[in-house]
Amino acid sequence: MAARRRIFSGVQPTGVPHLGNYLGAISLWVAMQAEYEAVFCIADLHALTTPDTVNPAHLRTAVRDTAAILLASGVDPAHAILFVQSRVPAHAELAWLLGTVTPVGWLERMIQFKTRSAEGDSVGAGLLAYPVLQAADILLYRTDVVPVGEDQRQHIELTRDIARRFHGLFGEVFTLPEALYRSGGARIMGLDDPGTKMSKSAGRHRARHAIGLVDSPDSIRDVIMHAVTDGGREVRADDLSPGVANLVTIYQLLTSRSRGEVLAEFEGKGYAMLKASVAEAVISTLDPIQQRYRELSAEPEALDAILDSGAERARPLAGATLERVKRAMGLDAPPPPPGARLSAIA
Ligand code: TYM
Predict the structure, then answer these.
(1) In the structure, what pLDDT confidence band is assigned to residue 193 with cuts at 50, 70 and 90?
(2) What pLDDT, on a 0 to 100 scale, did the predictor assign at position 342?
(3) H-helix or E-strand spanning residue 38
């Protein structure tokens, strides 16, 4: 029987994931985990590059909360390996090795680096090296497919470029990964501004920007009923503004229906009706996830045990690739035989 293909993906523990994370990535992971060999990581080392999360107590809590949300959303340890990035040291080690073959110009061109360095006054080397660590995450598991939101496109392309460059220098070691996007939903936009994608960082500063996966029904209704649309009043399938199109997308993904069906349902109906239906669909999707999240959060030891076992399972997979990389680079000098003297000292 042919070996199952492997998927790998990650999420930063920088606050409770939002509806964009769920629709663009997490729900896709859940849908794929039985068919593929699945490995998912909570990228805490990446989160250290986000100034808001440089707070040890906050980071510890955020890692557990993220684990609880992923499990509550359906990530199943019986199918998938779920672990915390810093618990598998091969990630940091491979990131260093890949950094030695990655031109700095490639990293300076990354949109995330350009945006965040334009916003902040001090930029750590970690922010520049962020995509190299992400490449290490993916390449360590000989990943075939990376299910992600569309905003990660540049990172996956860079991962392939780094792998190819490594192969040119040291020979073939890695599998070249392909990105996989949720069709029609790889980029959920902010509800207060359909011109920008829904993001955790904007959600921290803008009250009606995002829907957090553990937000209350009242807050979800409030955000969606105030979602920015346009000057019109009714849905016109042949003339959807970005705000209305975003609501239609959310509804379509949550109800697993085609765009045509959803547009036919709302054609000529008022925006208020569309918004009310979207709000109820979000609330009923999140209700069981929130219940499960509360149960899991009440059992931190059980959560930690799942993460411990995930790291145990991830380590040998990552270690095998790291060994091959080190051998290819000449970092595998055997220890001197007993009694041998080093020539420099002799
Ligand atoms: P992060 O934590 O920002 O987001 C996690 C996942 O959610 C997707 N996503 C979205 N999808 C649709 N619409 C949106 N508005 C939206 N916002 C976020 C993201 O594309 C992502 O799939 N660098 C990564 C974490 C990471 C990773 C990895 C991902 C670390 N190592 C290796 C893949 C493979 C990040 O910051 O994701």
Answers:
(1) very high
(2) 63
(3) strand 37-42
C-alpha 264 – ligand 1 centre gap (Å)? 32
Residue 346 clears pLDDT 60, i.e. is over it:
no
CA 201/CA 189 separation, integer angstroms: 13
Q: Is the CB of 85 under 6 A from ligand 1?
A: no
CB-ligand 1 contact for 198 (6 Å cutoff): yes
Distance from residue 106's CA to the centre of ligand 1 (Å)? 20
288-309 tens-digit pLDDT: 999 999 999 999 999 999 999 9
d(CA 329, CA 185): 41
N-to-C CA span, the chain: 56
Q: Could you say which of 1.20.1560.10, 1.10.240.10, 1.10.8.50, 2.60.120.340 is the CATH number of the domain covering 200-295?
A: 1.10.240.10
Residues of the chain with CATH 3.40.50.620: 6-182+300-329
Q: Is the CB of 50 under 6 A from ligand 1?
A: no
CATH (one of 3.40.50.620, 2.60.120.10, 3.30.1120.10, 3.40.50.720) for 6-182+300-329: 3.40.50.620
pTM over the 0.85 mark: yes
